[in-house]
Design a protein that fits this description.
This protein is mainly β and 267 residues long. The strands form four sheets. Strands 2, 3, 4, 5, 6, 7, 8, 9 and 10 form a nine-stranded antiparallel β-sheet that branches. It has a seven-stranded antiparallel β-sheet with strand order 1-19-16-21-13-12-11, with no helix packed on it. It has a four-stranded antiparallel β-sheet with strand order 14-20-17-18, with no helix packed on it.
Length: 267
């Protein structure tokens, strides 16, 4: 199974709940993925044995890496771009929550030594993709926090997608050699969608996590009425970094500005 259903029993304030672990099944993505919930005025410290990205999902707190401290705040991951810090192995981190907050942690084995790299909301590449094509059925917001273009020393790629209600993302259908993790949230929370992983299709709900092996085609869709947010994390492969997807050629026509679709299309 490539889908991990939400398990709130694993989540305890002040302690990371690891949903995915590098080197372990059901699909080895080469990454660890954890959620960290902190109550107001709670502090979490950690020594990063691996390369580690810490993404603020919502709330307010101060993050210290070495001698540098930065304040982060985010009221809504649906409506606001993210703040994030990426730390090379050996770094020490302290997170001090000013309010109740939630953080996502992505880790992978690395020999890189780049210290720490900080990403403010105004530094995140936020794009509205799909607009003006396919009758707006694939209009979505794609936020790329860091990738090979701006952080080639990292073994990771990290971003977010806001899937508009009733629309598609990761579209047109595509694949890439590198494994990927999707972690979902919905607005309202009782929402649902569908995540494709090759020929398998999974119902995805609030708090679920989809593991996509390298090479699998993986479009996504949200049910009408429900906005779908997901974190996406990719692990570069040795000698084969992720620089972009490969689209299925039989479906690329739908992305053309002058593509004709039903009801205008007749054959």
């Amino acid at each position: 199974m490539a889908i991990l259903k939400a398990d709130t029993d694993k989540r305890q304030a002040g302690k990371p709940a690891f949903l995915v672990s590098e080197g372990q099944g059901p699909v080895d993505t080469g990454m660890d993925f954890a959620l960290l919930v902190l109550d107001a005025d709670q502090t979490h410290t950690m020594e990063c044995e691996k390369e580690t990205a810490i993404l603020l999902m919502q709330g307010r707190g101060a993050v210290s890496v070495g001698s540098e401290t930065r304040d982060m705040q985010r009221d809504s991951f649906f409506h606001e771009d993210p703040s994030c810090v990426l730390i090379s192995p050996g770094g020490a981190v302290k997170i001090e929550a000013a309010d109740a907050s939630e953080w996502a942690l992505v880790q992978t084995t690395s020999n890189a030594d780049f210290g720490s790299k900080w990403f403010r909301p105004d530094q995140v590449r936020s794009e509205k993709r799909g607009a003006g094509t396919m009758q707006e059925t694939s209009t979505r917001v794609v936020r790329t926090i860091f990738d090979y273009s701006n952080t080639p020393e990292s073994n990771l790629v990290l971003g977010e997608v806001i899937n508009y209600p009733g629309k598609w993302s990761s579209y047109s259908p595509h694949h890439h050699a590198q494994p990927e993790i999707y972690h979902y949230r919905f607005l309202p929370e009782q929402g649902f969608g569908a995540g494709f992983c090759g020929d398998d299709v999974y119902k995805v709900e609030h708090g679920d996590t989809l593991l996509v092996p390298g090479g699998r085609v993986h479009p996504q869709t949200a049910a009408p009425g429900y906005a779908m947010y997901y974190i996406w994390a990719i692990r570069h492969q040795p000698e084969e970094p992720y620089t972009g997807p490969t689209f299925l050629p039989e479906h690329t026509w739908v992305m053309e500005d002058d593509a004709v679709v039903f009801p205008d299309r007749r054959s």
